[in-house]
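To the team - FE2/S2 (inorganic) cluster complex, inputs and output below.
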Amino acid sequence: MSRHEISLTVNGERYELEVEANRTLLQLLREDLELTGTKQACERGDCGLCTVLLDGVPTKSCLVLAVEVDGREVTTVEGLSRGEELTPVQRAFIEQGAVQCGFCTPAFILAGEALLKHNPRPTEEEVKEAVGGILCRCTGYRQIIDAILDASKSAKK
Amino acid sequence: MPLPKFDYLRPQTTEELAATLAEHGADAKLFAGGTDLIVVMRDKLVRPKYVIDIKGIEELRELSWDERRGLTIGAAVTLSELIASEVVRERFGALWKAAGTLADPTIRNRATLVGNICNASPAADTAPALLVLWAEVEIVSANGKRVIPIREFFKGVKRTALEQGEFVRAVRVPNPPEGAKEDYLKWGRTRGEDLAVVGVAGLVANSGKKLVRIALSSVAPTPLIVPEVEGVFKGGGSVEGQIDKAASIVVEKISPISDVRAGKEYRLHMAGVLTKQILKRILGAS
Ligand SMILES: Cc1cc2nc3c(=O)[nH]c(=O)nc-3n(C[C@H](O)[C@H](O)[C@H](O)COP(=O)(O)OP(=O)(O)OC[C@H]3O[C@@H](n4cnc5c(N)ncnc54)[C@H](O)[C@@H]3O)c2cc1C
Ligand code: FES
Ligand code: FES
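Output:
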């Protein structure tokens, strides 16, 4: 199997790594970089829990090869807060009780962040559409959608 | 669980891609968005020795339109890029709509239109729209280039007209006929992400001779167009009656199966219902 030298930026930090061809971005993040905020579940694109931002774009990392991200920028949930200071989306998730078991939370927060960056005042339908690829088994989604809507209102214009 | 082992190749030009396929074609799989490929590799349904990533080839990123040639969609263009295109939304409504029903926005950030047709699932959501728009597939290999109509591209469940060593460079969609209205309806088990129980694309053009095209997914081994409905509005009788006639022709020409998503009888029934619905919508909008 081929091996490849790659360099990538994860949460603002640069890494030079050697990866085997069959390594997924999800494995690279969790196993090599020990960033376990990104969750591993179905590994076939269905659940969305492995969602990260690839050059700012929400992407299911179980369907991306590590070798492909050479030269690119990845943001995981660990890269959002500044120290103790949470983002408006993160705060809204806590305030709305949008977190139960928490397994889906990193994915929803990242999808919410990406949405608000491009569309600071989304409608409820737009929020639903944006998080449509992520499953939550606990909350019933209502609180998650409300949290993202709340964050859109509380963020600075 | 790690994926099975393979070598990863990333050609930079279509010439290099053609040469790589000529050398390794039998043992290689092309890798666009990977939203089908990685899943079947994980299930060990395919075990390529070489995975050839086409996303490094600038030429395949082409998404362009001109008055004469119509729309060109390169093999590396994602569905999100297609949906963001104003020309696609304004001039190729059925295709734009269909692209927006495929999976979810996160998948669409990676998945390509060309990957959708090359995967050749009977449920491929973009296929019915491409069929009613009479799209063409540009196929390239080390030996040259050929262009075939999309209706000759699908050969069976997960089988296409591609020969070993060939790849799809782009899909070309000619401008729809004068005054055409088109739409796509996807009937699924849920409003969320799922493959279609039945998908129907319709096109009605009015240029003197009322042309009708209907194509469907998930009702036969391949997505298919039903050419027999083409003249259905030409005869006499009420529009209602003509629409009913189109639906009964469609139901007669399809051969759905029962699977986890729906029974055969339900699919037959819904194909008729959706054909009526889409024609009413299109006529109502014109
Ligand atoms: C969660 C989930 C939901 C989905 N929902 C839907 C849905 O609702 N509707 C639907 O239609 N599909 C759906 N799909 C299937 C898939 O996302 C689409 O078929 C997608 O368009 C495939 O594009 P890709 O670029 O990811 O293809 P890839 O996986 O990269 O490739 C697909 C196949 O085509 C071949 N190929 C790719 N490019 C070329 C080329 N240029 N020339 C020749 N062969 C090529 C590959 O070798 C592979 O066999 C879903 C998939 C997932 C994981
Ligand atoms: S783990 Fe990637 S989508 Fe489920
Ligand atoms: S909070 Fe448990 S899966 Fe969403």
